[in-house]
Inverse folding.
């Protein structure tokens, strides 16, 4: 049976058909859809964990019982999961343990574009890379087999284009009816990483690496595609597809198992061509290893080390390097010229988003404090990862830092302890708070902080597509469960001054923030309002009375997409407006009112 599937859908189906028992993840683009697809299968356990570290620990515990486990995350998530990831490389596995790391070249939805192939090498585990959806499907049973055969976790590294692009997949397997039953056999020397055990296990990881290197020489994922002898290209993942299109006359060594490298195969391939080239996205991961083998190789001198590759980039590099003869191409339209001709649409929060009100107030409070204290920041807002990060853009312009999940609270505390006298507010979402904000809060309490922390609770993990988390009351597979009470949790951490604030009440938000900022103690505000994209709560749309509107444009400071200019007037797009009334609340001329129905009601 053939289907058109994305790489993420293929990974999920391939793992399920390979006998997967337990899957754990934290949502993050471009990996999110893998667990979303797995959650539909009710004969396995699929969960959203509070963070990637917990997800990896769940997978590790499951594989210790002999069943197959899958852990899923985006590239930066592996930074969070680094401790159990490195420990798993030492303890090894029982059932297969596969980690999918979805990298994001080009930084489409991330804070960096780190190349996680380096982390597989760092941990001394096997690394597999699919180059399309068919390979993503086929690679999963092989990944589990390698994991069990060599007693090792296996990393499957995807990228944004592999994760999201769709290709035809021949679904040629069914799920095994007799999946392994869980059984834990005690083995302290393997599972308990006391120094005496870890030293012995560390030696085993090096022996295992030698065996994996030997296996890579015959692995079906590594293959030579014979072409001309002038140019030989070594490539993997999506870069292989681009390189094949640009250099059809070249010979190719296509790597699907890219660590450890098949060194003998590479030496044979290099000897068969006049010039050896590596085409890979991001770091010179393969190129440097080949150069370390003493083989002359080209690559990053011509291929960019940052950003996504594409045919044009590789064609230009190949032309400059003299890797082939190319027919003259019809000049492509200047992309920048085309983009500049389009109407500008800056990133905005959704109309009716519960985050708009708090950032509007933070912006105004910050401006007032700066004007009262010239030369000072006045109010410093340390931010975090989530939809609300968009509040850093104009017109809200109400976020001063954003590093990684959960960092805002720690950054604010660091600034405070450095001696800064400006007022500090750390802003964090509910999912991010449960992911990695709790420890920051505990640290703030322990070290007697006087900052304000605003937890923006919209009851979902919104930016990645509205996944559940421990505070929503539902599991990844739609089952009702206990919902963590964030206010009770905050109080249990030792915070005595904690308040719930409605997200769509500007006056309440302003009062709560001003009081919190002025208090010489740690204050936590839980600002609550459901995400408009999932609640679908829509009141009567609002309209602007042009006769009353003085064009002060204060309402435009909300950055709401429903507020628009039409010539010299301001209007509200009734199709977009959710009726949240934030603009109505801040209009000094009272020019905004609900649209009246034909019957006279609102």
């Amino acid at each position: 049976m053939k289907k058109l599937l994305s790489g993420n859908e293929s990974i999920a189906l391939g793992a399920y058909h390979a006998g997967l028992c337990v899957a754990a993840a934290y949502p993050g683009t471009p990996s999110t859809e893998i667990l979303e697809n797995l959650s539909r299968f009710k004969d396995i356990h699929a969960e959203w964990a509070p963070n990637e570290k917990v997800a990896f620990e769940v997978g590790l515990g499951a594989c210790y019982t002999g069943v197959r486990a899958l852990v899923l995350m985006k590239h930066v998530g592996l930074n969070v999961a680094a401790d159990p990831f490195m420990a798993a490389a030492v303890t090894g596995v029982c059932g297969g343990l596969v980690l999918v790391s979805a990298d994001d070249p080009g930084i489409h939805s991330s804070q960096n574009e780190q190349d996680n192939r380096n982390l597989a090498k760092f941990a001394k585990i096997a690394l597999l890379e699919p180059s399309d959806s068919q390979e993503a499907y086929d690679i999963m049973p092989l990944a589990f087999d390698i994991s069990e055969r060599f007693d090792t976790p296996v990393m499957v590294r995807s990228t944004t284009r592999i994760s999201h692009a769709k290709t035809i997949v021949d679904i040629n397997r069914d799920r095994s009816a007799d999946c392994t039953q869980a059984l834990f056999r005690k083995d302290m020397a393997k599972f308990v990483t006391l120094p005496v055990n870890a030293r012995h296990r560390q030696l085993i990881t090096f022996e295992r690496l030698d065996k994996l290197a030997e296996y890579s020489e015959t692995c079906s994922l590594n293959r030579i595609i014979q072409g001309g002898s002038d140019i030989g290209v070594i490539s993997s993942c999506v870069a292989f597809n681009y390189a094949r299109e640009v250099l059809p006359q070249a010979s190719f060594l296509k790597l699907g198992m890219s660590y450890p490298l098949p060194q003998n195969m590479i030496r044979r391939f290099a000897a068969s061509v006049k010039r050896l080239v590596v085409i890979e996205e991001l770091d010179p991961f393969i190129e440097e290893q080949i150069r370390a083998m003493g083989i002359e190789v080209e690559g990053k001198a011509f291929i960019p080390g940052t950003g996504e590759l594409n045919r044009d980039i590789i064609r230009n590099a190949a032309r400059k390097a003299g890797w082939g003869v190319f027919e003259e191409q019809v000049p492509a339209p200047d992309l920048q010229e085309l983009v500049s001709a389009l109407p500008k649409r800056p990133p905005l929060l959704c109309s009716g988003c519960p985050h708009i009100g708090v950032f509007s107030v933070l912006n105004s409070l910050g401006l007032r404090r700066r004007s009262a204290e010239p030369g000072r920041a006045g109010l410093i807002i340390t931010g975090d990862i989530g939809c609300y990060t968009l509040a850093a853009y104009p017109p809200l312009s109400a976020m001063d830092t954003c590093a990684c999940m959960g960092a805002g609270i720690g950054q604010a505390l660091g600034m405070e302890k450095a001696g800064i006298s400006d007022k500090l507010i750390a802003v964090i979402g509910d999912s991010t708070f449960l992911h990695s904000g709790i420890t920051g809060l505990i640290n703030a309490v322990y070290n007697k902080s006087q900052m304000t922390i605003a937890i923006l609770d919209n009851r979902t993990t919104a930016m990645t597509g509205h996944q559940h988390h421990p505070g929503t009351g539902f599991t990844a597979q739609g089952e009702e469960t206990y919902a963590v009470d964030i206010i009770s949790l905050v109080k249990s951490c030792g915070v005595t001054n904690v308040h719930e604030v409605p997200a769509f009440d500007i006056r309440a938000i302003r009062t709560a923030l001003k009081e919190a900022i002025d208090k010489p103690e740690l204050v936590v505000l839980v600002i609550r309002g459901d995400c408009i994209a999932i609640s679908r709560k829509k009141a009567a749309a609002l309209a602007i009375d042009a006769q009353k509107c003085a064009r002060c444009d204060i309402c435009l400071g909300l950055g709401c997409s429903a507020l628009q200019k039409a010539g010299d007037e301001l209007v509200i797009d009734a199709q977009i407006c959710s009726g949240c009334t934030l603009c109505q609340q801040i209009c000094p001329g009272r020019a905004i009112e609900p649209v009246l129905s034909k019957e006279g009601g609102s």
About this structure: Confidence is low (pLDDT under 50) at residues 598-602. The radius of gyration is 27 Å. Residues 562 and 576 are 5 Å apart (CA to CA). The first helix runs from residue 7 to 17.
